[in-house]
């Protein structure tokens, strides 16, 4: 599954998964300097239960690491993932 990085607006970005033109999953953030404010995660009902949200978060985390960014968890999914695992400690804002 390939996720595409899209600029949604000024300082607003997302990794998205689309199939046949339909957005089925995304993780979205607002870029504030070197901090990615993670504000939204969405996974379509047809993909739920397959670990897609974690894959999106891992993709965003990889992007943060490559660019020396930190991530601020606002979205409930990201907050929960950050609290449950220490694998994201190096990117937490």
Give me the secondary-structure topology.
Blueprint: E1 4-9, E2 12-19, E3 22-32, E4 35-43, H1 52-66, E5 70-73, H2 76-84
Give the second-level CATH assignment, the architecture: 3-Layer(aba) Sandwich
CATH class: Alpha Beta
Order of helices and strands: EEEEHEH
Strands in their spatial order, largest beta sheet = 1-2-3-4-5
Globally, the shape reads globular
Please mark out the parts with pLDDT under 50 across 5 or more consecutive residues, or reply none: none
Helix segment tally? 2
Helix-strand makeup class: alpha+beta
Number of strands: 5
Looking at CATH, the homologous superfamily is Gcn5-related N-acetyltransferase (GNAT)
Main sheet, how many strands, which sense, barrel? 5 strands, mixed
- Using only C-alpha atoms, the radius of gyration works out to 12 Å
Mean pLDDT across all residues, rounded? 97
Q: What percent of the residues sit in helical stretches (DSSP H or I)? A: 25-40%
CA(first)-CA(last) distance: 28 Å
